[in-house]
């Protein structure tokens, strides 16, 4: 059976769904780098210029109360365009998994870089309203704060794991019951390698408590590396392919330990295939 390959023009538009047809997205083979990126080919200037240009545009919309779900999807798609115009090659598989269940879901996977927080909404928001679990500091900043607050995220301090767990379970359950899906990265921080011991079960617990499916997602996004001082200002590596894959939904009626093992196995299996270093616990 042939896969339905989404085009850029398809993104952020309603999609007719045939349950039997896999849906994916790939950077077009004839996608050209931007003139600015070719001029400054030895630097990341074109990328960071385009990135902050879009951030300031989104911030202005958020401050005016106009940064809605549709605006978020289009903004995310523009960051995707920027990545591709700076040499990025992206492959996304399993989009049909998001559509295979009705109502809200929890989406959970490894957290490698800033890239996924900007790109994932492109492939999710047009099907389901979505928000993130984020660091509280991101909602307070003058630059990113207005954008993040407009998405009604669940904010955690990451200094007290018990308090964070309670916040995610209580606030997350309320949002899910209201029809809002949630993206969770069950790691303490973004890392370009992966340590299974740091991948906690908070997403599985949230899905079980709210009685909604959990969709695994495996990510390789070190095209955009984390910055040493400001993580959003990391270098880009044009030779590193970007891979995103969604997995089969895990049902809340199944055993939570089994779901956690399945989620972790899905992530580890795919990131290993893509060349990510997985630490031995």
User: In angstroms, what separates the terminal alpha carbons?
Assistant: 39 Å
The percentage helix is: 25-40%
- The Cα radius of gyration reads 18 Å
Strand order of the largest sheet: 1-2-3-9-8-4-7-5-6
* Number of extended strands: 9
Which segments are poorly predicted (pLDDT under 50) over 5 or more consecutive residues?
none
User: Structural class, from helix and strand content?
Assistant: alpha/beta
Give the overall shape, derived from the CA principal axes.
globular
Task: Tell me, rounded to a whole number, the average pLDDT.
Answer: 92
Number of helices: 10
Note the run of SSEs as H and E.
EEHHHEHEHEHHEHEHEEH
Main β-sheet, in a few words?
A: 9 strands, mixed
What percent of residues are in strands?
5-15%
GO molecular function: acyltransferase activity
Domain Phospholipid/glycerol acyltransferase: 105-222
Pathway: Lipid metabolism
Pfam family, one: Acyltransferase
Describe the fold and architecture.
The structure is a single chain. With 281 residues, the chain is α/β, with parallel strands linked by helices. Helix content is 39%, strand content 14%. The protein is built from ten helices and nine strands. A nine-stranded mixed sheet has the order 1-2-3-9-8-4-7-5-6, sandwiched between helices. Helix 3 packs across helix 5 (115-124). The termini are far apart. One of its GO terms (molecular function) is acyltransferase activity. This is 1-acyl-sn-glycerol-3-phosphate acyltransferase. Keywords: Acyltransferase, Transferase. It comes from Leptospira yasudae.
């Amino acid at each position: 059976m042939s896969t339905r390959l989404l085009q850029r023009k398809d993104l952020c538009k309603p999609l007719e769904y045939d349950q039997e047809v896999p849906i994916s997205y790939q950077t077009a083979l004839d996608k050209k780098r931007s003139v600015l990126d070719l001029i400054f080919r030895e630097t990341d200037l074109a990328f960071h210029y385009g990135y902050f240009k879009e951030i300031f545009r989104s911030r202005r919309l958020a401050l005016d109360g106009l940064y809605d779900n549709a605006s978020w999807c289009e903004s995310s798609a523009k960051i995707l365009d920027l990545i591709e115009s700076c040499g990025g090659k992206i492959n996304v598989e399993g989009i049909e998994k998001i559509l295979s269940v009705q109502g809200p879901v929890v989406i959970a996977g490894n957290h490698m870089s800033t890239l996924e927080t900007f790109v994932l909404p492109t492939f999710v928001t047009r099907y389901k309203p979505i928000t993130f679990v984020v660091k509280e500091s991101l909602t307070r900043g003058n630059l990113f704060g207005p954008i993040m607050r407009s998405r009604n995220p669940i904010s955690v301090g990451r200094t007290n794991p018990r308090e964070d767990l309670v916040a995610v379970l209580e606030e997350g359950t309320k949002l899910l019951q209201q029809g809002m899906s949630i993206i969770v990265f069950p790691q303490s921080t973004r890392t370009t390698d992966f340590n299974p011991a740091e991948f906690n079960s908070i997403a599985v617990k949230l899905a079980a408590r709210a009685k909604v499916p959990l969709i695994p997602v495996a990510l390789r996004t070190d095209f955009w590396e984390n910055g040493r001082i400001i993580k959003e200002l990391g270098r880009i590596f044009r030779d590193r392919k970007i891979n995103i894959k969604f997995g089969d939904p895990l049902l809340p009626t199944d055993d939570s330990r089994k779901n956690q093992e399945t989620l972790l196995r899905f992530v580890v299996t795919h990131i290993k295939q893509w060349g990510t270093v997985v630490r031995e616990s």
